[in-house]
Inverse folding.
């Protein structure tokens, strides 16, 4: 149980393109999901907290108009990188926690490797 | 906000030896401390976690200790095997439902 699916796993696109990444909790409901970014050989940095039915909460320094987050259902959150540029190339990973139960840990998706040419 | 420091950044041990990774945190409100293992290009996988109401937790070859007074926690891997080679991240948060603040990671290499 507690599987988080992320799609796509790899994206290569031209500068200026918008890219949508999906994060799904397959066998549980998640009112909150988290989006992290990881540059090569670095740690995971929280970008935003995605809340079902309400606006996402962004970390300082993360542009909310560039990284659009939608959490329209209890099992799906999407991150759209708008007008992507080479500096947005990174590994984007989501995590989710089964809120049905106390002290459930967070589980991560497989990540999306985004390469902007 | 929370600041998590992790040491060492790299660790090389021989197969069968023990490995210890240490982390400190700054926010006294943090009470949940998971450890993740990440292989190259893959997702972080939870290997063990500990909450502030206990000082130690063990799962086979892996153990975690927590000292809330000193605000530090450690991962102990005994009888290391080559397949333990990966990057290990510690994290801290106010609970498992909150965002995780990660350390910078430790690259562990276990040589046969």
């Amino acid at each position: 149980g507690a599987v988080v699916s992320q799609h796509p796993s790899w994206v290569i696109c031209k500068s200026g393109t918008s890219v949508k990444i999906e994060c799904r909790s397959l066998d549980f409901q998640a009112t909150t999901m988290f989006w992290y970014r990881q540059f090569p050989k670095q740690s995971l940095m929280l970008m935003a907290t995605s809340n079902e039915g309400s606006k996402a909460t962004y970390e300082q320094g993360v542009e909310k108009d560039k990284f659009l987050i939608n959490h329209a259902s209890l099992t799906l959150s999407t991150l759209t990188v708008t007008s992507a540029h080479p500096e947005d190339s990174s590994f984007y990973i989501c995590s989710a926690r089964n809120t049905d139960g106390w002290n459930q840990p967070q589980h991560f998706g497989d990540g999306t490797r985004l390469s902007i040419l | 906000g929370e600041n998590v420091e992790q040491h060492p950044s790299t660790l090389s041990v021989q197969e069968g030896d023990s490995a210890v990774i240490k982390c400190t945190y700054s926010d006294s409100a943090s009470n949940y401390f998971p450890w993740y293992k990440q292989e190259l290009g893959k997702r972080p996988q939870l290997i063990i976690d500990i909450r502030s109401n206990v000082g130690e937790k063990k799962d086979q070859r892996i153990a975690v200790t927590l000292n809330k007074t000193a605000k530090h926690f450690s991962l102990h891997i005994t009888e290391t095997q080559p397949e333990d080679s990966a990057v290990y991240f510690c994290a801290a948060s106010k609970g498992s439902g909150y965002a995780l603040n990660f350390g910078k990671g430790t690259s562990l290499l276990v040589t046969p």
User: Anything to note?
Assistant: The longest strand of chain A covers residues 44-51.
